[in-house]
TrEMBL record:
Top-rank taxon: Bacteria
Pfam families in UniProt: Ribosomal_L17
Keywords: Ribonucleoprotein, Ribosomal protein
Assembly behavior: Part of the 50S ribosomal subunit. Contacts protein L32.
Gene (name only): rplQ
Protein known as: Large ribosomal subunit protein bL17
InterPro entries documented for this protein: Ribosomal_bL17, Ribosomal_bL17_sf
Gene Ontology terms describing biological process: translation
GO MF annotations, alphabetized: structural constituent of ribosome
Record field: compositional bias (Basic and acidic residues): 121-140, 150-160
Amino acid sequence: MRHRKSGCKLNRDSAHRTAMFKNMARALLTYEQIRTTEVKAKELRRVVDKLITLALRDDLHCRRQAYKVLGSHQLVQRLFDEIGPRFEGGQGGYTRIVKLSQPRTGDCAPMVIIELTKKAADAPVKAEEKGTSPEKETSKKAAAKAPAKKKAEEPADKAEQAPAAAPDESGTTKEA
């Protein structure tokens, strides 16, 4: 009987299964969206949601637990500094599974896209954090356009000066 046994075996031994989910968790946190089968995505959701919950607590012990799964200091830092703060105030529901219309070629397995619910572009970016205010950005754009207009006027001035130094009948130019 299968009492008190959670998760799917996915036709793999435990070492292969844990390695696969570690790799998939790394890919999902790196690219924020991956394409996989439906059953793998449902199992991966459990792993990634636990990692994001660790990122919300943000202490040394949580960072070490996340490192055990991710195995990369840069990815742990990204999880705790960029991804975790996006989900402040929420309890769960950090990932979304979207079913694709076409099954996988060969074995007809149902395919899905698993992604983080809050993307980097969705996160509000304050002007103070960015370092420039919207007024400064518009003035920079206006300043960039002004020299472009001056450059466009300069060739017209040179064209007016060119007939003044026209060559004479012998083919030489006379300068004033």
